[in-house]
Amino acid sequence: MRTLRLNRQFDAVVIPDSIDYMVSPDDLRKAIQTAVEHLKTDGVLLVVGKTEETFKNNNFAYTGEKDGVHVTLLENNYASPFRPNTYEATFVFLIRQQGELTVHTDHQVLGLFSQATWEKVFDDSKLTMQKTILNSTYDDYLLGDGEYPVTVFVGQKA
User: Fold this and answer.
1) Quick one: which of 63, 94, 62, 56 has its CA closest to 75?
2) Of 44, 60, 48, which Cα lies nearest the Cα of 21?
3) Residue 52 in this model has a pLDDT that exceeds 90
4) How far is the C-alpha of 87 from the C-alpha of 90, rounded, in Å?
5) Which residues contact 91 (CB under 8 A, 6 or more apart)?
6) Per-residue pLDDT tens for 113-137?
């Protein structure tokens, strides 16, 4: 995402919440610059991210079954005050197949930046910026009184 070069340009580039894997402002800048290099003039970049100002610690539960395999996923998101510009996402997978339960875990450290950082990165990349905060998108999966607002950043290349 930071160094890919396709030698093509597009009318639009979309980066879903995979942008969270950028864990430093420099990583974020490189990813956005890579996207801009792939945009035609007047092209649009759409990024789904999070900001420090709106991030809330939260827990999710997802469940589903197909072809006799039942999966429950528990997800915990936590912004540690001891690790600036990041949050932790921890996943516990409960998988039942033919009556046997297996448990798997995954832990990731992801980027979390201020609104000012997002604005600077877009501005430095010569993108106009509009943003919209989406609330309630994941409400069906949230446990307790959690919140999970995401921000949609839209930039246009001059």
Assistant:
1) 62
2) 48
3) yes
4) 10
5) 73, 74, 75, 76, 105, 106, 107
6) 999 999 999 999 999 999 999 888 8
